[in-house]
Amino acid sequence: MNDCLFCKIAAGEIPSNKLYEDDQLLAFYDIDPQAPVHFLVIPKKHIESAAALTEADGALLGHIFAVIARLCGELGCEGGYRVVSNVGEDGGQSVKHLHFHVLAKRSLAWPPG
């Protein structure tokens, strides 16, 4: 998508503070962190949101969560972490590209708000 912010970040057209990258994914630190550790994981393939996922995306999702677990281990998040994917306007999604927020190293209340 030509006008997608996260597609541009994944393509290297817009800089990010990269944490991890491979041929399928990019992880980078959030520019407005809500916890001491707050990063995003996005697929390089444009998928509008979790609502657009299909069974064919199963391997990609497994890879995303495996990478999240590895990064959280490397960042010392042994106390726990939260993974959030907002879907649609009412769900708080501001960028129409599937992404996962990973927050850690502070107590995270429930319900979230």
Automatic annotation (TrEMBL):
Segments carrying motif Histidine triad motif: 97-101
Domain HIT: from-to ranges: 5-113
MF-aspect GO terms: catalytic activity
Entry annotation: catalytic residues: 99 (tele-amp-histidine intermediate)
Cited InterPro entries: Histidine_triad_CS (IPR019808), Histidine_triad_HIT (IPR001310), HIT-like (IPR011146), HIT-like_sf (IPR036265)
Protein name: Histidine triad nucleotide-binding protein
UniProt source species: Faecalibacterium gallinarum
